[in-house]
Amino acid sequence: KKTSAQPKARPAFVVKLWSMVNDPENSKYMHWTDDGTAFIVTGREQFEKSVLPKYFKHSNFSSFVRQLNMYGWHKVQDVTSGSLQAADDTWQFKS
């Protein structure tokens, strides 16, 4: 019998996301922002090849973003970036 004192199980995606962002081996491709309220993904192509397959049965960045959206994470527009090219390869997500 479950009691209300037991913590609820976290969804697998949320656990994997936390592991991904906190794994030092992934820091080249993803890391928390300085204030810890968002995370940044850089080098989308390499992220798809190097990080996603370690955690998921796919390497599709669009699928990853859809999952993020389902759990309340959304892309933050970088209005301070002077370079469109840099912004295209850098994605910031905030919950």
UniProtKB/TrEMBL annotation:
Its keywords, alphabetically, are: DNA-binding, Nucleus, Transcription, Transcription regulation
Q: Does the keyword Transcription apply?
A: yes
Q: Which domain of life is it from?
A: Eukaryota
Q: Which compartment or compartments is the protein found in?
A: Nucleus
A molecular function GO annotation: sequence-specific DNA binding
Q: Which family does it belong to?
A: Belongs to the HSF family.
The name this protein goes by in its record: Heat shock transcription factor
Q: What is the originating organism of this protein?
A: Tortispora caseinolytica NRRL Y-17796
